[in-house]
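Summary for the funding panel

The consortium committed to producing paired sequence-structure records for every protein in the target list. Below we show the first two records in order, beginning with the earlier of the two.
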Amino acid sequence: MYKHNSSLKKLKKQYVSINDSIESYFNRLKLFIIKVKKSGFDPNHRVFLTVGSIVILTIGYFILPSAYDKNLIKNEIKRQVLNNYNIDLKFNQKINYGLLPLPHFSSKNVLIENNQKEIANIKNFKVFIHTNRFFAFNEVKIKDLLIKKADFNINKNDLEFFKNLLISTYDDNKIIIENSNIFFKNINDELLFINKIKDIKFTYDKKKSLNIFNFKNEIFNIPFKLNLNLDKFTKKITTKFNSNKIRLNIENKINYKNEVIVGLLEILLINKNILLDYQIHKNYLDFSSQDNENSFEGHIDFKPFYLSANLNYERINTKSVFRESSILVDLIKSEIFNNRNLNLNINFNIKDVIDNDQLNNLLLKVIIQEGILNFSNSNIMWKDSLKINLNESELNFEEDQINLIGRVKVDFKDTYDFYSFFQIKRNFRKKIDQVEFDFIYNFNSKEINFDNIKVDNLSNENLDKFINEFNVKGNRVFNKITFKNFINDFFSSYAG
């Protein structure tokens, strides 16, 4: 009862204060008009006086919220934001009223709480208000939210917060997040990755009954755009992802009205369209795709995360994959794979290499275990004469340098065909079954080093000298001509 009386007294006091402000304002306006009349104001200027009065009255109306009780307004904003958007705010500093660009209240260092845990600190927070209730000081109605320079610190247990944002009904209102960061951590509070938010907008389309979300973000130094449409009545979600940097476009359609969620994924990667059907179960996801040339199938476990897949291609252009600006090189340089929580096993089976007639039947095994990427047990055929095996490989991230380290074993099935193709002199054509060597390829400089060369399991002094001289050269980059010369010099040195 005491609390009720106390609140009532505050309301009355606030009402009296506002009433006094309004009365004082109009009294001053009345005195101004009387003075103008006494001064012999020209009747021809009544239009000016009328317009001026309207302007003054309008300004007076819009500055009324500056006289509101800020504590009452703070509580009302907190209540409406929680009810409308499932966002629990905690104000640490006073709120201020601003008129431009639109009437709003603002505050700094506002916290967002979820399940009694602080998940975000907002450096600049604004809540815009409707302008038709300024005389009803205790009935402020919020409109749009603007969050700037916020730091979100979340883990997988906090994802429910973003899910609630997606399913909220925004009416004509918007939530805008600008120049912020999402720090995603594991349960041990170790940082996994940072998602940089340039611009996020949450809106609602009444005509189509759609929740609409537009994202402009950056993750692993890869900028991307994401558009998401949610229809809560038909239980369908459509998303469109685009990243020009890695030349990747994805459109995804989901129907979640049943326990098993079904979806269709369309991927445009390096000008190649891929359609994937998938089914999402409680703890895992299965996907598959098949067209006239290619087929894919895979499985994803959620806890812990693990991806296994077999991807079969009829043909591939290696120049588009391994060129300086390719998606693979961009992904490697972004260090997206350098993540201890990333585990996957993908087999790429490629029948033909269209930009090199001699290469065929590529098996590329991509294995990531706790963030360590390797291509061990991959192989490719050179015509039908050589089988090239990649073993003990690992992608190494050291400071700003990215190196692929591994061991190659070449099995010769037809040495005559090989020698003829590379025009090896006849007196250098020795019978060989196998060549092995270690290598280091630097993605930054595109240079390669060789070491520990063995022919038929035996070292060769002349070869060691040749390789050492090659490694100390300033330019160790291969093209067709330099590679052919390298092969000729290699067998010349081996033959003595």
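The next record, for a separate protein in the list, is shown here:
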Amino acid sequence: MRSFRMAGIVAIALVISGSIWSATQSQELPGVDKLRGVVAEILGKDPKQAEQQAQDRLTPPSQAVLQYSFAPLVKSAAPAVVNVYAERMVRQQSPFGGDPFFERFFGQQMPGRTRKQSALGSGVIVHSSGIIVTNNHVIDGADEIKVALADGREFPSRLLLKDERVDLAILKIDDSDAFASLGYSDSDRLEVGDLVLAIGNPFGVGQTVTSGIVSALARNGVGVSDFGFFIQTDAAINPGNSGGALLDMNGRLVGINTAIFSRSGGSNGIGFAIPANMVRAVVDAAMNGDDAFRRPYIGATFSTVTSDMAEALGLDRAAGAIVTAVVDGGPSDKGGLKVGDLVLSLNGLTVDHPDALGYRLATTGVGNIAELEVISRKKIRKVAIKLAPPRQRSPDMEARITGRNPFSGALLADLDPKLAEELHIQSNAKGVIVLDVERGSYASRYGIRPRDIVLEINGHQIKRARDVVEIVKGNPRAWRFELDRNGNRLRQMVR
């Protein structure tokens, strides 16, 4: 009976405290002071203290908040989010391949068959003319790309630009209609704790909306692109959401949903989105007629700041990007950047790590001024650097090796400071770099990998891709070569 009475008292106290809160939010009700006294007497606390605790524990603060809905925002934004269907033809190997009996009749090449392989993702219309942005991994290798609008209409689309390093692709619907589109939000103004919505087509079930908050900013080490600068959110993102929209509370595009951390394949509350400012830069390049996104050249190499470095510089935490190399005559050298300088910000925006600096440079753009705040010899100073255009590739700087040799199937390129910076290699690296290795080629069999640097072949120092071409023409019977792989020297002999 006593417990029942106490439960009743507590319930009354909660109801009374709720009434007090409502009164303080609108207008004072008759008898409120007496009710406050009753609450205080029951709780054995000061009336003001009791009231404050009641207020702190009550959510939402008013009845009006219960009427809030994301529905108007979704109705406005959803027509601009599309489903992307990518189809590719793949050749399926015969199950009898390698069987001596069947090879007697069909030869070494067993007859296979081709089949259609489909990939499903999402996309966002960012311009009324039908410009769509999605992830590169959604459409990579596709022979045909179709998009389906929220109203059920389907259109073929063509690829304007794709960038594997950023993991973005820009599509175009060739139709005279004006399409619903989303405007961009300034993703640099996003803060941890901001509310966001994710719209996409998870698992192919149809357009789906999920809500969450921004969990973190400037995330790196995600492993889906070379630009380690992602928005992290707990809004549910699942397979099929790739390329979909991450919206702010103004219904504007704040990011493109790209990846998740998951052990099950479904959402675990850790999703990542490419910031809208990067998306805008890539879309602008496509709309200007570029077939590739140009990254500016700064002429310097940067490394992560360790805790020991931070302590030596008098910093309270390890943050920023430390300069490890500066190219003579390059933009950084002309601007006065020195080895050992610690970059803290770019154009007033914080730089937490080298990946963040790369992102800031990419969104600043070629030809523009990057104003760096640096710590140099424990003093803060400003460095203004004009960002140069990237390396212009020419046929004589690259070579695809053919024939019967250990490098056959490898695409080699002259390694210069601009290419080294683009590939995140020390700018003073020398030699010839492997850009690509064909699957099943001799180079692949002998373990040659992209980003390997060819230093020496049969006693000859390799400086240009053409050097390898000339050695191959000699058709040597034995091969001795030396590679640099992530700073480790590898020697190999092939007969």
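Regarding this second record: Residues 2-67 form one domain. The chain is about 25% helix and 30% strand.
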